[in-house]
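#data-curation
PF: Archiving a pair of folding outputs for the training set. Convention for this channel: one message per protein, sequence first, structure tokens after, nothing in between. First:
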Amino acid sequence: MNTKEQLLRYLKKEQGRFVSGEKVSSRLAISRSAIWKQISRLKEEGYDIESSPRRGYALRSIPDCLLAGEIREGLNTRLIGRGPIFHFRQTDNTNNQAKALAYEGAPEGALVIAEEQSQGRGRRGRTWFSPHSQGIYATVILRPLIPLSETPKLTLLAAVAAAEALETQTGLPIRIKWPNDILANGRKLAGILTEIGTEMDAVDFAVIGMGLNVNVPQASFPSDLRYPATSILIETGRPFPRIRLLQSWLEALEKYYSLLLQGDFDNILSRWKFLTDIVGSRIAVEMPGHRYIGEVQDVDGNGVLILKESDGALQRIFSGDVTLLTV
């Protein structure tokens, strides 16, 4: 915990009450000038801190922002979110920023957060609607020692983590639409986007991004997204605190990532199959230049769909847009 975070924690304990600069200096073993510098930084981040030459400092209110100090407080992880946290008021998208940071050597567990994305991305180049302070746009940097062929497992475990975190926190019936869309009552609530950096045919890093619609009103969605897309606000009728939702995903992500590194992917895959409930379903898969229709026979250890067409031919589907067919 750095000096700014220590100061913030102390001010929170005394929230609403003035604490003298002398007392803070003694408690944290830092100079009065260092305290002032950190207070100025906290104010820039949006913390409402009243300063008085005679009485000291008083924390009046905490901003609704996904700031490092707020994320770390109460976060039950050992790796993810414990290293650097890069917070942007606005950026193109968090995956782009995370990849750049990973190439520069950012450590495993580093987290990139944005309050707003100007070019939010989903699968297959689609846009992810990312209004300011109404969603969670977050990317985690990982450096797994796994073969390149096993990297699709990261998307599966991240989707399971998101589904479990959201179900626990909101009570909504959450399901995964293959391979990485998170649905609530059949409508898209969140998406996972995993990208890999390689070096000499080996995994250098993976960035796992999540876009989650939290407090987005129905009318705010672009007209072409209003039906397929939803938010926690729409589904529950009430706004949700974003910090705890993010923390819950990071905690679940670390849990399943640890299982993967321990070689226990079977449990993750079993949970993923349950949450997708796609085996035995008749589906159509849209791919560039082709459309497959058939029954899902299984999902293999890398999350690849095994699809049986009407003529008995088996197809291995690595990616595509899936539609469930009722007949």
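PF: Second:
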Amino acid sequence: MNIKVIGIGGCGCNIVKYLIENNTNIETICLNTNIDSLNNVETLQKIELNINNDSYDIEDIKNIFNTKTEQIKNILKDTDILIITAGMGGRTGSVLSYYIAKIAKDMGIFTMSFVTLPFKREGQMRMKIAKTNIKQLKDISDITISINNQKLLFIIDENTSKKEAYDKINDALHIVINYLININDLEKIKQSLSDKLPIILDKYKKIIKIV
């Protein structure tokens, strides 16, 4: 069974980096407008969106992404399960997660989205955008798992470092991937995953929502 994870934007690429460093035995892909973020991840598949404009907007991202769709389709050939991971509320991850999911679904790939909601301090507008993004992903993905960054405060203490806090998000995806690898049966996964996820992610039930 061929499982791939694509990290989109800075948050998604950081999650992919964690998976690689923790020896997750799957193919990983990173897509970003930030070349430094891509260079920071030791994945073989990197897709750079070359935008030479610091004040780029959503339309700029969509336009440059349209030049990469054939490359993405080639990378996704023979994929059974695609996991899309990104942070919602910003530009790259928010905008492109939906379009990647649509490509995958059009190719007949079982598609999961694993995304994060911003902290309250990031502002109401960012949260509003994030919730809209997640609703769009829910409508096209087979399964969507959202993690509320603000609720990380419920499962950490004052001695927890920022990296340790974010690694709890990364670990949740790591648990899901290991479960998929161990099952190794696409039809069984399609039939039972939505029921099994609350069980295998029980220790993170305070921060996740499965939709």
